Amino acid sequence: MNAPGFAPARHSVDQLPFSHSYAALPPAFYTRLQPTPLPNPYLVCASPAVAELIGLDPAEFAQPEFISAFAGNRIPAGTQPLSAVYSGHQFGVWAGQLGDGRAILLGEVPADASGGMLEIQLKGAGLTPYSRMGDGRAVLRSSIREYLCSEAMAALGIPTSRALCVVGSDELVMRERPETAAVATRLAPSFIRFGSFEHWYYRDQPDQLKTLADYVIARFYPELRDADKPYQALLTEVTRRTAELVAHWQAVGFMHGVLNTDNMSILGITIDYGPFGFMEAFDANHICNHSDTQGRYAYSMQPKICHWNCYALGQALLPLIGEVDDVHAALAGFASAYQEKIDVLLHAKLGLQTDQDEDDELINATFKLMQDNHVDFTLFFRRLGDLQRDNPAADAPLRDLFIDRAAFDAWASQYRLRLGREIDNGSSSDAVRRAAMHAVNPKYVLRNYLAQVAIDKAQNKDFSEIARLQKVLERPFDDQPENEAYAALPPDWASHLEVSCSS
Predict the structure, then answer these.
(1) Which cofactor does it need (predicted)?
(2) Under a CB-based contact definition with an 8 Å cutoff, are residues 136 and 122 in contact?
(3) Whether residue 37 is found in the same domain as residue 131
(4) Helical pair 230-252 and 324-331, crossing angle rounded to 10 deg
């Protein structure tokens, strides 16, 4: 049975039933404005799965009205375009007022039969009052990366914003070099950030802070309204969601790249894809963002930084919570929530159904072995599922990933002993474990070089590789033998790729 307000019929763009809860907040929270038209726009890519989420007919992709609407050249019926204000800490330093410098919110639409809502936002739609020194545009390169990664993360089961489409243009904008402009349309239940609360705290405007917190609780955390201390409960829940989110990132080797407080979702979902990367040759201290010269957002730092960001949110909510001890109590749940989630995820990745005393030692030894050999993160865990408990002779595909084969052999012996203490599934135990491990260890992730190949072709108006790659990434856990090349080690030239905050 469909939830009230959701129409399963497929809509055209102008039939989408927009509503505007964020626009109902006081005017200080945003600026109403129109997108800047994109010259001679063309469709680069679009996601049928996301269209289905909001009841949009994928046949619309071929219509000029669809392209013009999501280029920002035409305002769809029922929308109320606006850009939101927020502030934040960037690389650990208070940056003051920021805001949607190139993003324009159109409104929200019913999301699916569950009764949820999704905001629709144009990223790269032109100058806003919050653009600072920017031009308000996104480039084709970064828009394709965000589109592909949003959908790849959703397929991996990681909480994330989604991407409906990318519309391109031959208009040139300057980054490190001239690049063509694009608009990416992204969706999320909300794009409110930690920095949205920091904005009002540092401006010493407690009434606006309360208004925002009450809005977030009423719309996204209604179960907290009747709590004895609802604002403390809000911080507790956001802290828990954030801890579990970063555990998911660590478990697939995902690096966000720029975990500023203005890029942290109040809903605990992944937003603002920029200089992200998936771990390849394992290095716990790997920095995926070329702009991160101090390594603040390295892979190993992500849990600590997300915890730090929760403290920044706790500071902003202090006027509402009232007691510092209550803030600390809410934040204290981060470590346990993270540890519980990462333990569950890593046990599953290693094919361990039970939790035993020596497991921490085995897990630490696994990552040390990976670190010492710089083994490919995704391939290691995927091939580990093929290991046969009683047949070391079949280890070659996994063993060949390691420089120090003797060290691998010693580790594999310990791993096999641990498997021997698992529940015995009889003669099918290897097959059962393989199926379970392959269901959580992806074969396909969005490696930077795969995205770059698609981008290079798209810059020559060939968008076929985006569609092909998206299809592969929609089924990351399936073997897909016809797409084996997408699971291969990166080529030598990929080591020279760099992504930065301009990505």
Answers:
(1) Mg(2+); Mn(2+)
(2) no
(3) yes
(4) 30
Residue 264 CB contacts under 8 Å (≥ 6 apart), including other chains: 193, 194, 195, 242, 271, 306, 309, 313
Q: Which two tokens stand for residue 53?
A: 């989420």
Positions of the chain with pLDDT under 50: 1-4, 6-7, 427
Determine the Cα–Cα distance for residues 289 and 295; give it in Å rounded to an integer: 8
Binding-site positions read 99, 101-102, 123, 135-136, 186, 193, 263, 272
Helix, coil or strand: residue 20: coil
Give the Cα separation of 177 and 60 in Å (integer).
34
The whole domain housing 462 covers 448-490
pLDDT value of position 501: 79
Tokens of 243: 């801890």
Q: Considering just the CA atoms, what is the radius of gyration of the chain in Å?
A: 23
Say if 204 falls within a structural domain: no
Q: Give me the pLDDT at residue 495, please.
A: 84
User: Does 245 share its domain with 377?
Assistant: no
Shared domain for 29 and 171, answered yes or no, is yes
Domains in the chain, number: 4
Other residues' Cβ atoms within 10 Å of the Cβ of residue 345: 17
| Known binding residues for ATP | 99, 101-102, 123, 135-136, 186, 193, 272
From 378, 412, 438, give the residue that closes a domain.
438
The single residue of 57, 204, 207, 262 carrying the catalytic annotation is: 262
Q: Does residue 46 sit in the same domain as residue 178?
A: yes
Same structural domain, 165 and 230: no
What is the model's pLDDT at position 9?
Answer: 60
267 with 376, same domain: the answer is no
DSSP state of 73: S
> Known catalytic residue: 262?
yes
